[in-house]
Design a protein that fits this description.
This protein is an all-alpha fold. It is built from 37 helices and 6 strands. This is Transient receptor potential cation channel subfamily C member 5.
Length: 886
């Protein structure tokens, strides 16, 4: 019995045992189905299963991102439990972690791996983009807490980011893009019609650091369109024209600001509200502020330098409105965005420090002006004089104000990546300072302990100078503070080695001190400093590898700050109250302190009507958003299926090779048929065909049609094999069987590798007995359907095979696909009715010999894989005999 049938019988018996016992798994030591097959307990133990017990079918489908299975399970309302927060202290989490912490962490990771599946998010979420944002942020936070699985959580977070970006890739129009980016998740905010077209979804993406989504070309194209509103074709203009245009608008920003203050709804007022114009005006205002700082540092206006409380100069009076404007702008930003969002931006922290220094400078100058009225030489002033402290703070604030201009570099494609790299390097410097400060403090403590006893007075030193700032350095390690300074400046080579000497002849102390000083220099210069350089190089390379994404994300944050309502006027014009401000203030005062009675409920009805209208508009917008999301998901799924098919390896080269193989097979068959002596052929269009022996000695010219019989004998190793049973039942149709064998022997040399594949294919179909089916089967004929062979044909073939004698297992029986006539007489009675029906059904495919050859391409397109799989079973000692009637 063939091995395949044994396996099928074994499987059926196993299913029967499972059905009768009605148990989910086999727990016996051995399940004996017969004397040959046993199922050991090792195969049934859950400890050796492929998946852990917490893996459910929908989780497994989500892990493999199988869209079809996930869709089927979601339609059946199968869900995945949402894991608790990482810092959850509920009874369930605590008990699970105490019982098995590894299983608890692994279970959480498996759930998040399933939740991060793009197919599951697309099928189960009403807003897949927002779900991907939040899940990606949550996974990023988990990677910081669970360091053991940091790489896995970061990979899942990146997967969610790419899914949101790929979903946005499917947008095909600006309308779809606007609907997506302007959608709000918070319905309370969405009811406000004034805040709908403000790119709410893009703000959420920036909040969750979705850099791939923000830097996506579709999103950037829409942003550029909104940014350059009012300047069509700006990017196509020459750089000289762009520069002149920006300079002109920059010089006119005072007049534009005044026009907006007078009439915000005028053409000039609406012109300055455009994002690009607003950016140019704010930049021009800040450059004017830096220019005035430069004038203040150069002391254009001469004053008495010995006055302890000098009055403010003209330049300082001009700087004051800008400082007040900066402070007012920061207060409004903190009020609108909240304190948490405000401190998350590093530039806001820098602005806060800069404004604080300016306020401290103004306060100290006022104190000095009020307290000190006299004039006194500056050399005689005390160290903590208010004027001296104010001047120092003002100098520091000037440095910060100049460096604040770096934030504007983000708008440029060349300077933007450098500015981002500089920010990353500052983070590396902060990390480096922790280690360096520890090393510095350690050696400072040791050197101070060693040289504390050798401190000298200033009068004992040359020029009465004590410290490392003297012409001859001394007392470098006498105090802890002096030691810290000395070690810090030694990194830059500003400290001499003789500072380790002492006046007494204590050579051992000098040797220990010099050794400690040298060791510090080796650690700080050779090790730590090179480590800092390597860290900074790594940060720059990381930005350079993703320069486009990083720069576009930073530029988008800069642009979004000018898209918002408010903050239209630059400093110092933003501190001037506008008529609109007076109107808002009057309405607030009237509603707060002078409430009007409404006995008829007129205002209440008006508010209800406006609320209903806004709610209806929000429902319409949400419906449009859901429609767009459904279209994006459908396109994404179609693209995913196309990519999966492409990744299977079906390329154009594979099809070319297949066509070449088919063409070579056709030429081999044509060459084989062209070398035959019997060339007369005729075909019948009826349901039956009559074959007559085509012999030179046969002189009869009956009305029966003639056909051509081609036999291939692939050789016999053991003994001659009999022909196929169905062929032996038709001795008059195509001549004697011996002649067929002789012809096959004579044509052995024309057999090519392609025909070997075809013979093996027919051998496979002859030996395999499939279930009877009434569905049509397409064969080598183009578009001609024939029924599957019936079980009667198989039984008849097996019966004839038994009568014919012992034949090898590799014999190719073509009785199922043989094209022959329905024979009459005693011999035709041996063929069963089902066989005759099969022959009649297959006879229509022999309309022409050329059509058969042309259709061979279809054969190998569907059967080529089967031939290749059977070729490795071909043995040199096997004997094959193929008889084909055309």
């Amino acid at each position: 019995q063939p091995l395949g049938l044994d396996l099928v019988a074994w499987s059926l018996k196993l299913l029967v045992v499972f059905s009768l016992s009605n148990i989910p798994a086999v727990s016996t030591a051995h399940l004996e189905l017969n004397t040959c097959y046993h199922v050991p307990t090792l195969m049934m133990d859950t400890q050796f299963s492929e998946f852990t017990p917490d893996i459910t079918p929908i989780m497994l489908a989500a892990h493999t991102n199988n869209y079809e299975i996930i869709k089927l399970l979601v339609q059946k309302r199968v869900t995945i439990p949402r894991p608790h927060q990482i810092r959850c202290n509920c009874v369930e989490c605590v008990s699970s972690s105490e019982v098995d912490s590894l299983r608890h962490s692994r279970s959480r990771l498996n759930i998040y791996k399933a939740l991060a599946s793009p197919s599951l998010i697309a099928l189960s979420s009403e807003d897949p983009i927002l779900t991907a944002f939040r899940l990606g942020w949550e996974l990023k936070e988990l990677s910081k807490v669970e360091n053991e699985f940091k790489a896995e959580y970061e990979e899942l977070s990146q997967q969610c980011k790419l899914f949101a970006k790929d979903l946005l890739d499917q947008a095909r129009s600006s309308r779809e893009l606007e609907i997506i980016l302007n959608h709000r998740d918070d319905h309370s905010e969405e009811l406000d019609p004034q805040k709908y077209h403000d790119l709410a979804k893009l703000k959420v993406a920036i909040k969750y650091h979705q850099k791939e989504f923000v830097a996506q070309p579709n999103c950037q194209q829409l942003l550029a369109t909104l940014w350059y509103d009012g300047f069509p074709g700006w990017r196509r203009k020459h750089w000289v024209v762009k520069l002149l245009t920006c300079m002109t608008i920059g010089f006119l920003f005072p007049m534009l600001s005044i026009a907006y203050l007078i009439s915000p709804r005028s053409n000039l007022g609406l012109f300055i509200k455009k994002p690009f114009i607003k950016f140019i005006c704010h930049t021009a205002s800040y450059l004017t502020f830096l220019f005035m700082l430069l004038l203040a540092s150069q002391h254009i206006v001469r004053t008495d330098l010995h006055v302890q409380g000098p009055p403010p100069t003209v330049v300082e009076w001009m700087i004051l409105p800008w400082v007040l404007g900066f402070i007012w702008g920061e207060i409004k930003e903190m009020w609108d965005g909240g304190f948490t969002e405000y401190i998350h931006d590093w530039w806001n922290l820098m602005d806060f420090a800069m404004n604080s220094l300016y306020l401290a400078t103004i306060s100290l100058k006022i104190v000095a002006y009020v307290k000190y009225n006299g004039s006194r030489p500056r050399e005689e002033w005390e160290m903590w004089h208010p004027t001296l402290i104010a001047e120092a703070l003002f100098a520091i604030s000037n440095i910060l104000s100049s460096l604040r201009l770096i934030s504007l570099f983000t708008a440029n494609s060349h300077l933007g990546p450098l500015q981002i790299s500089l920010g990353r390097m500052l983070l590396d410097i902060l990390k480096f300072l922790f280690i360096y400060c520890l090393v510095l403090l350690a050696f400072a403590n040791g050197l101070n302990q060693l040289y504390f006893y050798y401190e000298t007075r200033a009068i004992d030193e040359p020029n009465n100078c004590k410290g490392i700032r003297c012409e001859k350095q001394n007392n470098a390690f006498s105090t802890l503070f002096e030691t810290l300074q000395s070690l810090f400046w030694s990194v830059f080579g500003l400290l001499n080695l003789y500072v380790t000497n002492v006046k007494a002849r204590h050579e051992f102390t000098e040797f220990v001190g010099a050794t400690m000083f040298g060791t510090y220099n080796v650690i700080s210069l050779v090790v730590l400093l090179n480590m800092l350089i390597a860290m900074m190089n790594n940060s720059y390379q990381l930005i350079a590898d993703h320069a486009d994404i990083e720069w576009k994300f930073a530029r988008t944050k800069l642009w979004m700050s000018y898209f918002d309502e408010g903050g239209t006027l630059p400093p110092p014009f933003n501190i001037i109250p506008s008529p609109k401000s007076f109107l808002y203030l009057g309405n607030w005062f009237n509603n707060t302190f002078c409430p009007k009675r409404d006995p008829d409920g007129r205002r209440r009805r008006h508010n209800l009507r406006s609320f209903t209208e806004r709610h209806a508009d929000s429902l319409i917008q949400n419906q449009h958003y859901q429609e767009v999301i459904r279209n994006l998901v459908k396109r994404y799924v179609a693209a995913m299926i196309r990519n999966s098919k492409t990744n299977e390896g079906l390329t154009e080269e594979n099809f070319k090779e297949l066509k070449q193989d088919i063409s070579s097979f056709r030429y081999e068959v044509l060459d084989l048929l062209g070398n035959r002596k019997h060339s007369r052929r005729s075909f019948s269009t009826s349901s039956t065909e009559f074959f007559q022996r085509d012999d030179t000695n046969d002189g009869s010219s009956g009305a029966r049609a003639k056909s051509k019989s081609v036999s291939f004998n692939l050789g016999c190793k053991k003994k001659a094999c009999h022909g196929p049973p169905l062929i032996r039942t038709m001795p008059r149709a195509g001549g004697a069987q011996g002649k067929s064998k002789a012809e096959s022997s004579s044509k052995r040399s024309f057999m090519g590798p392609s025909l070997k594949k075809l013979g093996l294919l027919f051998s496979k179909f002859n030996g395999h007995k499939s279930e009877p089916s009434s569905e049509p089967m397409y064969t080598i004929s183009d578009g001609i359907a024939q029924q599957h062979y019936m079980w009667q044909d198989i039984r008849y073939s097996q019966m004839e095979k038994g009568k014919a004698g012992a034949c090898s297992q590799s014999e190719i029986n073509l009785s199922e696909v043989e094209l022959g006539e329905v024979r009459g007489g005693a011999e035709s009675s041996e063929c069963p009715l089902a066989c005759a029906s099969s022959l009649r059904c297959a006879s229509s495919i022999c309309s022409s010999n050329s059509k058969l050859l042309d259709s061979s391409e279809d054969v190998f397109e569907t059967w080529g894989e089967a031939c290749d799989l059977l070729m490795h079973k071909w043995g040199d000692g096997q004997e094959e005999q193929v008889t084909t009637r055309l």
